Amino acid sequence: MSATHTPGRRHTVVDSPYGPLTLVASDGVLAGLYMTGQRHRPDEETFGEEDPRPFGETARQLDAYFAGELTEFDLPLHLDGTPFQRAVWAELLRIPYGETRSYGELARTLGSPGASRAVGLANGRNPVGIIVPCHRVLGASGGLTGYGGGLDRKQRLLAFERGEEDAVPALF
């Protein structure tokens, strides 16, 4: 199916300090935010026609976030995944700005203490990076572990949210 015939899907690309971000809407609701070179990035033909109209508020909130003026997004989201993935993503939304959790902590919160690996897999399939803050999840030892957008971006996002002076976003 070509990009111009994907029913209900639209996309646009916005600039960010972490490189271009592809925003995808399904029936006017944000369903994807993908970085360049991101692991598990869907095929572009699934993004639909290019149309910036559904993304005005998303772009405004992203700009405010990158300017350090917004710490919590308030956007409707269409998160397409399994029930377990959606439960993990819902927990990601509860991690406050500037804070982190481990995969194990998330698994315990979900009532499945032995599921830290499954939590990690669901985290890696998050379709709306940054807004659904999968970058706020660390390994059990507190170290950086996988990030679909790359560990450098994860490290920079975390440092930015902690207010580290040298982490002021600059174009990637």
TrEMBL record:
Q: What is this protein called?
A: Methylated-DNA--protein-cysteine methyltransferase
The UniProt GO MF terms for this protein read: methylated-DNA-[protein]-cysteine S-methyltransferase activity
Q: Which Pfam families match?
A: DNA_binding_1, Methyltransf_1N
Q: Where in the cell is it found?
A: Cytoplasm
Q: What does this protein do?
A: Involved in the cellular defense against the biological effects of O6-methylguanine (O6-MeG) and O4-methylthymine (O4-MeT) in DNA. Repairs the methylated nucleobase in DNA by stoichiometrically transferring the methyl group to a cysteine residue in the enzyme. This is a suicide reaction: the enzyme is irreversibly inactivated.
The entry assigns this protein to a family as follows: Belongs to the MGMT family.
Taxonomy, top ranks, is: Bacteria, Bacillati, Actinomycetota, Actinomycetes, Kitasatosporales
Any idea which residues are catalytic in this one? 134
